[in-house]
Structure formats: structure tokens, C-alpha cells
User: Fold DUF445 domain-containing protein from Antrihabitans spumae.
Amino acid sequence: MSAVALSGIIDWHELAGWSTFTIELVTIPIFSAVAGLITNWTGVWMLFALVKFAGFRVPGLAAIYPWFPRRVQILPIFAAGGRFGFQGFIPARSEKMASMVVDKAISRIGGPSDFFRQLEPAAIANQFASIIASDLRSTVDAVIQHAYPDLLDDLPPRVREVVYARVAEELPELANRAFNEIGEHVDELLNVKTMIIECLAARPELLKDVVHGIGAPELRFMVRSGLLGFPFGILLALYLHVHHSIPVVGVLPNWLVILCGAAMIGVTVNVIAVRVVFTPAVAKPWYLCPWRQARFARRQEAAATDFGHAIAHQVITMPVIVGHLIDGPNGDKTKKLLNRVLAEEIDRILGRMKPLVSVAVGARRMKAIRRGSTSTAIAVVPELATDPEFNRVQAQKLDLLCAQKLRELPPEDFVELLYCAVEQDAWLLYLHGAVLGVAVGCVHLLIFGA
Assistant:
């Protein structure tokens, strides 16, 4: 290494006619800037890619993995079955990241009742009623057919028309009561944190898009800040010029100084990028902090708008809410509540027609029809999430709420939304910067010597 570092692969003194100091002063800053750009670009890339783990099985890794320090075990380079490879930091920790997003942001926006009120139960009820009304006759026929397959042919046309008309007349009131009841109990039926964690953990690419979307300008700045390697490279070149005249440390060979300096530059540009983006959250005088306030905090209003849009249109959507209400941990409670309310409403509707209908179908058949009616109505609920236009309108309502609440967050809390994606793995980004710095330093030594 020493021999190569001293001479390089080309004699630049003879080729360019420059002194060693001139060569170092010109080339080291350029190489340092390139190293900074590569370091910061790959560091940001590592946060988000790969979305899915890519790697290979290493014999014996599964046996020794339990002996690794905890800090090493949580690195996104290991997977079950003794596989070694890589996955982006954020996708690898999608469940934990989703939990932090809820704790630091969505829980501040409101609870289940706040979200449900913003969606307007009356609007959901109208949509529910319109879905049933769009195919009312077929739905009623299906209910009767389900209860008693031979009943439809026996039911007089006049009675059937009365049933159709009464159900159509009472349908809006039935739907309103059902969803008002859900609204009154939504805190018991809807666990927002569980819902969002399940949604984002199952779709790490969505979490990646959300985090990248709210911090895109800051992430671009972090990459560009790698150019700070250039002035640090100048300082390193100037230091090399006086290095051997300094007692004690002057005995170290130039090649070692270049490699150590390159590693320090790689770490420093990373540290500066992270600090400028995330600290301080509250503005300080310029003499205490040259950049005064974190870039992300300065952009809170615009970033809050972007984040609110992402939450409303990609995370807390009608399909997610409806799916969680019907099929989530409390889905049985939701169905039980709906069954009770719908049964009472259907009794009320049928009660007005009881003298007419019971003669035609009998009391026992009426009870079976009521049971079939509630089952059919509950089965329609998931269809609330299938209308793109309705979903878009509902998302716009949540969008306004989320953006407003996020803009009102204290700057310290708002900065945490993005910083939590970097904080745990910051040390690895710094280590990555040092390694790349050394690698670029080796290339410089190989070409120019020391």
C-alpha cells in the first residue's frame, strides 16, 4: 500500500509539471466532493430501497445470529432462515415506523370519532342507501329467496310491490340510524393505531412513498450537501502541506492521513446534512446556529399539507376504514351492532305491513325474512369502498382535517415525523460515510500517490 500510495500509477509531476502541493490542492477537494455526493446519495437511497429484502442464504448464519449484539441483529441485512442481503431501513421497519407515525402525528390529529365525524355519517348513510336502492328489487327478492326459496312464486304481486315501495321509502332512515349508531360507538369499533399499522406494515412500499413524499426537498438537500466535501478537501490538502512539520503526528505517513481525512469528511458531510435538516426545530439567533432553524421545520406548512394529503388519500381511506370496521379485531362488534339496529328498523318497516304481509307469508317466514334482510344489508357495507368518486370526496374531507392539525403541531413534534425515519440508523449512515470516504481515498492514492 505504501509503495503505491507514494508513486501512484501515473507520474503526474512529469505529466502536468505540477508540484505535489498543487496536485493535492486541485485533486483532493474534487475527490472529496465526489465522495460526499456518493455518500449522501447512497445514504438516502439506503433509507428507502430495497422495498423487499434481497439476499441469499449463508450456511451457519442462523446458528451464530443469536450471538450478535442487538444493534447488529436489527440491521436490515439479515432475514429469517440465515439469509444475508439488504432491505431499505424504512421498509425493513415498516411496523415500527407505522407505529411511530401514528404516535407522533396521526394521534395528534384526532381519535376515531374525530375521523368519523369528518367523514360525515350522513354522507356514508346516503351512499349506503343508494347502493341498496340501485338494485332494490333484486336485493329484496334475494332476501326472500334466501329465507324461503319457494316463497317468491307464492307472494302475490300486489304484496311484493308494497314491500318494494315501503323498503324504498324507509331506506334513508334505516341507513341513517345504522351509521349514526356506528358513530356513537366508533371509539370501541375502530382502533386507528392498529388499523394504520396493519395497513402500512402490509404495504411497506406505501410507507416508503409517504415518508419520501413529505421529506422530498430535505432529502434532495441531504444529497446536494455532499458537495461540502469540496471545502473540507481543501482543508485536508492544506493540512497535508504542513503535516510533517507538526510534532508527534507528523511522523504518520501521508497516505494514512489522506485515508483518515477522507473517512472524517465522509462522516462530517453526513452529520452536517442531518443536523441542518432536523435541528434546531425552533429558530435560534444566527450566532447560536448559522442556519438558524431546521429546513424541515421551516417548511412545516407545505410539508403538513403534503402529509395530510398522503394520510387521507393513501392511508386512512374508505376501503381501509370499512375493511377494519367489518373484518378488523372488532369486526364482530360492528356486525352485532348493525344487526341489532337493522333488525329493529326492519321490524318497524314490516310492522306497518304486518296485517298484509303476515297473511301472505306467515309469522315464521317474516322472522326468517328479517334475518335475511340484516345479513344482506351488512354484506353491502364493504361496497361503500368500491366507488372511486365517493372515496375521493371522503378523502378530501379528511385531507382538510389532517393538514390543519399537522400545521398546528409544535415544530419539535413536526420535525420528529421525518427524523424518526433516520434517527435509529443515523450511526450506520455515518459509518457508511466513513467507509465510502476511505474507498474514495484509496482511489485517489492509487491514481495520484501521496
About this structure: Residues 1-5 have pLDDT under 50 and may be disordered.
